[in-house]
Amino acid sequence: MRHALSGHGASRGNALGRARVRLPHALEVAEERIDADAAESELRRLHAAIDAVRVEMRNMRSQLHGALAHEVGEFLDLHTLLLDDPELLQGLDDLVRKGLYGADYALRLQRDRLAAVFEGMDDAYFRSRVEDIDHVIGRVHAMLHKREADLQGVAGEILVTDAIAPAELSQLQAQGVLAVVTAGGSALSHSAILARSLHLPLVVGAPLALQQVNDGDVLVVDGASGEIIVEPNAADLRDHRARVREEKRERKQLHRLRREPSRTLDGVDVKLFANAESREDVAEAHALGAAGVGLYRTEFLFLQRSELPDEDEQFRAYRDAVLGMTGRVVTLRTMDIGADKADRTGLALADEPNPALGLRGVRLSLAREAVFETQLRAMLRASGYGPLRVLVPMITSREEIVAVSRLMARVARDLRREGHEIAERVPLGAMIEVPAAAIALSGFVGAVDFLSIGTNDLTQYVLAADRGNDALGDLYSPLHPAMLRLLHHVIRTGRARGKPVAVCGEMAGDATLAPLLLALGLEEFSLHPGTLLEVRRAIRAHDHATLRSAAPALLRCRDRDAIRRWLANVGT
Ligand code: PEP
Ligand code: MG
User: Fold this and answer.
1) Which of 298, 433, 487, 526 to mutate to test the pocket of ligand 1 (most atoms within 8 A of CB)?
2) In terms of CB atoms within 10 Å, which of 53, 111, 508, 560 comes out highest?
3) What is the CA radius of gyration of the chain?
4) What is the pLDDT of residues 91-139, one digit of tens each?
5) What is the number of the ligand 1 atom nearest to the C-alpha of 506?
């Protein structure tokens, strides 16, 4: 039956396809109550799923052969026993019949109860049996949502899951996935950034998606508004088609701006650089007339693999980016691994209690000097092919930038001695994304050639609000007076010392915020190519002098509403 779900639009685009539901290992379903007269049919649904899992396991058991058949068979037997456990079944029946919980939530409650018993045991073996409970209950949960057992492949499908890692996204797209819907997550996570780069529609923070979407359901997903329609009716399909047409029309209109300058009404030229995660982004940046690449996130070379890329492989990727921009500068950011960009190579620590505050970005690079040196060698070798800058993430203090600068100088000497042709000078820049670096900027601005403000992390660290945590809602937003003052301070300090300052966080790609950044004195934006033309259009619609004169009023705003009113007044 038709119903609508809502989440947050994280990557624009419209998709119409069938759902492929991927359930999490742990059952993170929200509380759902049912009416008393629906209890018996809910129980029948639950028992039908349990019976089907029993049959499935029996079939699997009978098909086992080969060396491990005995061991695997024992596991299946154990799981079948758990399924027949009167404790489990009675508990579920009570939760649905007396507690009036939906089947999904009853499974979750029962799982947690049983897990608590096992986890409280002294014996490590019994404690580890929680995994079996998770497996069995997970299978029943999956069966509850299974309509067709034989969905093959994922092409033409919309993945519905609890969370998505950045590393999975490009693989999914290559497999033909049309869009992704996640129960958790946030629009500022690295997965969201990558989805936008891949032009893969993504809706995050749709908590009911895992309960209310079944495998094989037809979905209409709007990656801009975050709306998901399950089993759309004729009107929904019409709306979807209209949105697709509108999207095309808008693209065509924007396309006309690709050869136009990014110039305000009063003739101030603003530099629009591109953020790039891939070869395709570089090509798109070039085609749209970007001033260069302002942020090349090199860590994406490291994320989808279990071995580190060697010097030559990195060199080829960096060189190709430089060649692809045909003489426009490419800013390579040294690897920003750690936090939500955990790799599989073992480079980042796996068990940090607080990874966003841990060994991330330049901290990790300096702690793994050999790996860092390999990356710097590859970067400097690429500088022989065209203009290149090196940008360092997560700078907190002067010592870090000095250490990188020294290492770069040594690497350059080595490469020259080995006969490599490298640029005479490779500008070194710092990302300003840790509040300490923004506040104490005057103390180290002399040690860098340029600055790039990472508003995604700066927002997270200034507001103590995790960029990936959807539960924080509007709290995570750069539209906070503290953020505006810091941005203003960094832009002013950089300009006073003659150092170019860009913003490369997602904020720069939001056309509605362009007047705010211009008012604060920003003259360089680095944004995903997918949003470049919209921001160009916004810049061309504003008068620079008028915005600059409205900056004091902007800086006096006391809260988000006042900032929004300021934006409305300057006409976005
Ligand atoms: C930022 O933090 O704003 C930024 C551009 O870096 P990333 O999003 O890769 O952390
Ligand atoms: Mg960052």
Assistant:
1) 433
2) 508
3) 27
4) 899 999 999 999 988 988 888 888 888 777 777 666 666 767 777 887 8
5) 3
Q: How many CB atoms lie within 10 A of CB 66?
A: 7
In the chain, domain spans = 3-21+151-238, 36-144, 267-570
What's the confidence (pLDDT) of residue 314? 97
Q: Quick check: is 190 catalytic?
A: yes
Q: Are 80 and 64 in contact (CB under 8 A)?
A: no
Give the number of the ligand closest to the Cα of residue 507: 1
* Among the listed residues 104, 108, 132, 55, the one whose alpha carbon sits nearest the alpha carbon of residue 214: 104
State whether the beta carbon of 456 lies less than 6 angstroms from ligand 1. yes
- 427 CA distance to ligand 1 middle (Å): 20
Q: 72-76, 362-366, 411-415: which range is least confident on average?
A: 72-76
Residue whose CA lies nearest to ligand 1 atom number 6:
454
DSSP state of 338: B
The response to whether residue 292 sits with its C-beta less than 6 Å from ligand 1 reads no
Instruction: Report the run of H or E that residue 551 belongs to, with start and end.
Output: helix 551-556
pLDDT value, residue 110: 87
- pLDDT computed for residue 152 by the predictor: 46
Q: Please tell me the predicted confidence (pLDDT) of residue 516.
A: 98
505 CB less than 6 Å from ligand 1? yes
Please state the CATH superfamily assignment of the domain spanning residues 3-21+151-238 in this structure: Phosphohistidine domain (3.50.30.10)
- Enumerate the H helices of 295-434 as residue ranges: 311-324, 362-367, 369-382, 398-417
- CATH: 1.10.274.10, 3.40.50.1950, 3.10.310.70, 3.40.50.150. Which one for 36-144? 1.10.274.10
Please name which of 362, 445, 361 lies closest in space to residue 408, comparing C-alpha atoms.
Answer: 362
Q: How far apart are CA 223 and CA 228, in angstroms?
A: 9
Tell me the CA–centroid distance for residue 526 and ligand 1, in Å.
11
Report residue 221: phi and psi, to 5°. Answer: -120, 130
330 close to 294: Cβ distance less than 8 angstroms: no
In this predicted model, which residue has the larger pLDDT, 207 or 373?
373
What is the predicted pLDDT for the residue at 67? 52
Q: Is the CB of 157 under 6 A from ligand 1?
A: no
**Letter string b/e over residues 28-49, b meaning 16 or more CB atoms within 10 A of that residue's CB:** ebeebebeeeebeebbeebbeb
Query: What is the value of pTM for the model shown?
Result: 0.74
Same fold flag, 36-144 and 267-570: no
What fold is seen in the domain 267-570? TIM Barrel (3.20.20)
Cβ(277) – ligand 1 distance below 6 Å: no
Q: What is the mean pLDDT of the chain?
A: 89
Confidence band (pLDDT; 50, 70, 90) for 72? low
- Between 361 and 53, where is the model more confident? 361
Q: Is the minimum distance from the CB of 504 to ligand 1 under 6 angstroms?
A: yes
Closest by Cα among 412, 500, 501, 520 to 453: 501
Instruction: State residue 486's pLDDT score.
Output: 98
Q: Which ligand 1 atom is at minimum distance from the Cα of 460? A: 2
Question: Between these two residues, 63 and 140, which has the higher pLDDT value?
Answer: 140
Higher pLDDT, 481 or 27: 481
Interatomic CA distance for residues 188 and 433, integer angstroms? 14
How far is C-alpha 451 from the chain's CA centre?
A: 23
Clarify whether 557 is annotated catalytic: no
